[in-house]
Every structure is written in C-alpha cells, then in structure tokens.
Design brief:
The complex is a heterodimer of chains A (128) and B (454). Chain A is mostly helical. Chain A is 50% helix and 0% strand. In chain A, helix 1 runs parallel beside helix 3. Chain B is mainly beta. Chain B has three domains: 61 residues, no CATH class; 234 residues, Sulfite Oxidase, Chain A, domain 2; 113 residues, Immunoglobulin-like (Sandwich), CATH 2.60.40. Chain B is built from seven helices and 24 strands. In chain B, the strands form six sheets. In chain B, strands 7, 8, 10, 11 and 12 form a five-stranded antiparallel beta sheet that branches. Chain B has a five-stranded mixed beta sheet with strand order 17-24-23-19-20, with no helix packed on it. The N and C termini of chain B lie far apart (70 Å). The chains are: A mainly alpha (128), B mainly beta (454). Chains A and B meet through helix 1, helix 2 and helix 5 of A and helix 4, strand 2 and strand 24 of B.
C-alpha cells in the first residue's frame, strides 16, 4: 500500500466516522431486513473514474445510496457544490466542510463533469 | 509493528479484512460482501465511536471502523474489484420482467423500455419501479393497514384498509402513472437525478375509492387548501424521523373523481413494490404525488412544504434559465400536470427488417397529464414531413391513448421514425427537451427510434 493510498484511505475512514456519529439517528427496527426484498449489486470504487478522492467520495456517498446515482450525473462544480448542500439539508448528510469538502468536490468535478452528452437516446446501430 | 507477537488490528485487516471483521467484531459478510454487524459487534463498535451506528447496514465488510483506524493506519483496499457492468443492467426482481432496465439499485429504480409498453394495459411485471427510500417489508395483514386523515378537517379519523374497502364505493379506472422525472435524460447539459428515457410510465387498471369521498367524510375546513402525504417507507439514511418523501396537491386536484386511494392493480392486490397494500393515485401529475405505502393524509392551510415540495424538486423554472446555470429556488413553481408525450411501442428501437420491407406497421401510446391527446404524427424524414396516426379514444379520463400507423418506406436502409403528440390545448412535443431546469422535469421531446431495412 503506497503512502498516498494510505492517506486517502485514512480520510475516507475519518469521513466515515463523521457519517456514523452524526445526530442521534438510531436504526429503526426492520430497517436492515427491509433491504432483503432486493439486494443491490455490490459496487466498488474501482468501477468509477480514477482520480484523487475516489475512495473518500465513494465511501462517503454510499452511506445512503448506490454510487451509480452519483456517477450517472454530469455537473459543473457549482452544481455539485449545490448538490452537497442539498444532500445535507434535504437528506441529513453530515455537513462537509473545509478540506473534506474540497477532496470530494475535486473528485466529483473531475470524474463527472458537466456534459452535453445526453444518455437519453443512443443510436442502436452505431459500432463502438 | 515488527517484533510484535500479537498482531495489530491493522495487520489483521491487511491480511484478510473479512476474517478480521469476524474475529474482532463478530461482523459477518453477507453474500454481497456488505456485512451486517451482529448485535454484539454493533454495540462494540457503537461504544467505540460513542454513538449509535445508523449506517451500519451500509458499512462494507472489511472496512476497519474509523475509530480504530484514526491516525494509525488505513482502511484496507477492497479485494479485486469487478469491472463495472457494460450496457444496460436488466432487472432481476421476483415477478418483474427481465427486460426492465435498472437505473439505480439503491434506491431501486427501473424503467420499462418503450417496446415493452406495447400492451393496451401495462401488465404488473412490466410496470416501472420508482422508490425513494428503502423497500418496506410486505404487509402481513393488509386489511389491518391504518391510514390517518387529519389536519384542517372537522373530524380527523383513522381507518383500516379493510374498513376503507367496505365503507366506500369502489371504482376501477385505467390510468397512466408517470414519474415526474420521465424524459430527464434528454436534457442538455445533463439534468440531475435518475436518467429516465420515456420508460418511467405505465398504464394500469387501478381499483380503489375516491380520495374525495374519504376527505368529505373527514370534512375539509374552508382553510384546508393542500394535501400532505406520508408513507411507511424508511429514508435511505435509516433515520426514522425523516420522511423519505412527502408531497401533496391542491385540494381541487385531490377532489377530482379520478384521484384515488387504491389497493388493486390489474385486478390483483397492489404489489408491495408498487406501494401495496395501499397507495394514492393522483393521475396526470408527477408520480411522487401518488404516495406509495400510504399511512397519512394531512390537510394543510398552505402549500405543503414536505421533502420533495421545495427547492427545485418537482418544480419548473418560472423565468427561463440558462441551461446549466445554478438555480435560484425563488424562480421555481410546482410541476403539476405532466406534459404531452408519445412513444412508439412497436417496432423496437434497433429493429432489423428484412430487405425489401416497405410497409411497416407501427403501434404506440400517447398521453398528456391532465389533458387528452388530440393527434399523433409520425415522420420518417427527420421532421420534414409528417403523417397522422390513427388515434384511439381513452377508456376514461387519464387513460393513455393507443395509436397505430402504417408507414411506407421508400427503400432499404437506415431510417429514423419520430412520433409527436399534440395535446387537447394544441401543445406539441418539442424537438428537444424544453425549459432546462437543474432537476430535469418536463423533458418530453419526440420519441425517436431507428430501424434498419436489409
């Protein structure tokens, strides 16, 4: 394990503890079993574009939803910034501040930048 | 660390994270490698970090709890990662068609490719899935399910589903249910949210009672102008005090005879995955108004401001904005009726037709939120000329309108077929997704398929 990787993982771990200790959330009865109705496919950070901050972002954001919900977006930095606020205000995500916020914003901006490519229609006969 | 006989936590984790988990915390990885903490382990980790662990069900097995990792070392890298699946992921869910395409797995969201919407009534197995939170366990005794009516009413009450069925007159209507974000993927630059094509819609036979009858029994006060809907699904964070979604509608919409509390879908009990045993069905408006797993309707004396009502959620820009700009929430109004839309359901996008084929029979569907569809037109030359399709009448208000057309192709080769519906007020589907907004509502451009002859 390289020093850089170690460093990144340590940030991810710090963020995780932040996520785990926020507010007085308690696990509602049945919350764990509820997901048994459908088992989401396991995602790994390595499936997503490689850039600094990938692991931190992956583990921080997947506390609630799959990373695909993040990865199917393409946004400018101001819109990603707004998305982080939205996650906190609307969904109770621990507030990201200072360096942690920069790490995650840097990754999001680099990995999923604003795009004019619309996933909506793809020509089925295009040879790739 | 060298020279120590006892191995540190870090070393154990570096060697074999999952075994380390089991040894230290009694945490077992499930088949999906995302282990649940066993109760003893949960308490141990909880004590270590000084609090309950709300996200424990999301904590990947083998990820060293951060309280132990701090300043010492590292969470181990996950084992060799599988490659991300290429192409569409098909749904694997009991009772659902494998042709449905998964947009997201947590929360579970899956759309129906247009060619699977070829039935006059969308079968349950082909009906799209949209969840905002965790999927609740199936109700063991549906008739004992309780719904509460309160707020600005003279006689607030609770009623079981069993009583609802026996006390009020039931009706069955075939109506479109459509996700508010349907068509989002056509916006450019990309709008944020689930990237639906046209498949966040279906048309089923819904059985239930008029919402108006229930609200009248409670006696809505003159101050009651808006509904607020609540449900049993738990927020993705696991926080029991945070509604997953709570939307509402103007009281006039709630009082329309087609706005219903439903428990039946295509003659069967409403499946759990579609909000069973009981949900709202507010036809023509964004699907999120049709709260699944309904537990409470509260009447309010102002526009409801629950999660999903504010900011840019389920809202459109009042003053048109530059695509991609950051939004000013003050410039937004609630999305009510869904816009006009048409889809070609046969042939499928990508169909290969035999050389020499000149006549192509088309089938499709069209609908228009609160309105009806006046006409559907088809083009095979990129909109340079259009021909009218044969449009059927709806069975009842909010039903979709099926259409058919026969095309004459001039030659073999590559053709695009476009469909364009016009609503009863004369508005047509546009060429591109109109009125860009950051969360991508109202994306209703022409449907476009490509076929290859020969």
């Amino acid at each position: 394990m390289t020093a850089i990787r170690k460093g990144r993982a340590a940030v991810a771990a710090r963020l995780l503890v932040l996520a785990m200790t926020t507010s007085a959330l308690s696990l509602p009865p049945g919350a764990a079993s509820a997901q048994q109705t459908f088992t989401p496919r396991e995602e790994e950070p390595e499936e997503f574009p490689d850039a600094p901050g990938r692991e931190e972002t992956f583990y921080f954001c997947t506390a609630c939803h799959n990373f695909k919900l993040v990865a199917q977006q393409g946004m400018s930095r101001p819109r990603w910034d707004g998305t982080l606020d939205f996650m906190t205000e609307r969904h109770g995500m621990p507030k990201l501040e200072g360096k942690d916020r920069d790490v995650i914003l840097d990754y999001l901006e680099q990995a999923f930048p604003e795009t004019t490519a619309t996933p909506g229609w793809q020509n089925p006969f295009l040879k790739r | 660390m060298s020279g120590k006989i006892e191995r540190s936590i870090e070393e154990l984790y570096l060697e074999d994270p999952e075994r380390a988990d089991a040894r230290i915390f009694g945490r077992k990885a499930g088949t999906n490698r995302r282990g649940f903490l066993e109760s003893a382990g949960l308490a141990a980790v909880g004590a270590a970090v000084g609090g309950a662990i709300p996200f424990s069900q999301n904590m990947p097995a083998g990820l060293i709890p951060a309280a132990f990792a701090q300043d010492k070392g590292a969470a181990p890298a996950p084992a060799a990662a599988p490659a991300a699946p290429k192409g569409p992921i098909h749904l694997d869910f009991p009772g659902k068609d494998k042709g449905l395409v998964v947009i997201g797995e947590k929360p579970l969201v899956a759309e129906t490719p247009e060619h699977l919407l070829n039935d006059d009534t969308t079968p349950i197995d082909k009906f799209y899935i949209r969840n905002n939170g965790q999927i609740p366990d199936e109700a063991k005794d549906p008739d004992k399910w309780v719904i509460k009516i309160d707020g600005e009413v003279n006689k607030p009450f609770e009623i079981t589903l069993g009583e609802l069925k026996s006390k009020y007159k039931a009706q069955t209507l075939r109506m479109v249910l459509e996700c508010g974000g349907n068509g989002r993927s056509f916006f450019t630059p990309r709008a944020s949210g689930n990237q639906w094509t046209n498949g966040g819609a279906g048309c089923a036979e819904w059985t239930g009672v008029r919402l108006a009858d229930v609200l009248k029994a409670a006696g809505v006060k003159p101050s009651g102008i808006y509904t607020a809907h609540y449900a049993a699904d738990v927020h993705l964070s696991g926080d029991p005090n945070r509604p997953t979604l709570s939307r509402g509608v103007r009281i006039a919409k709630a009082m329309e005879p087609e706005s219903m509390i439903v428990w039946g879908m295509n003659g069967k009990p409403l499946p759990n995955i579609h909000g069973g045993p009981v949900r709202l069905l507010i036809p023509g408006w964004a699907g999120s108004a049709s709260q699944k797993w309904l537990t409470r309707i509260s009447i309010r004396d102002k526009e409801h401001d629950g999660p999903g009502m504010t900011g840019t959620s389920y809202r459109l820009a009042i003053k048109p904005m530059v695509p991609g700009d950051k939004a000013d929430p003050k410039n937004f109004r609630i999305l009510e009726s869904m816009p006009v839309r048409s889809i070609i359901t046969a042939p499928a996008n990508g169909a290969k037709l035999a050389a020499g084929t000149r006549d192509v029979a088309l089938r499709g569907a069209s609908w228009a939120g609160d309105l009806s569809v006046q006409r559907v037109d088809i083009s095979i030359d990129y909109g340079q000329s259009w021909q009218a399709a044969k449009l059927e009448k709806p069975k009842n208000k909010f039903d979709w309108q099926r259409w058919t057309a026969t095309l004459k192709l001039p030659s073999d080769g590559y053709f695009e077929i476009w469909s364009r519906a016009t609503d009863s007020k004369g508005k047509m589907q546009p060429h591109v997704a109109p009125n860009w907004n950051p969360s991508g509502y109202g994306g209703n451009p022409f449907h476009r398929i490509a076929v290859l002859v020969g």
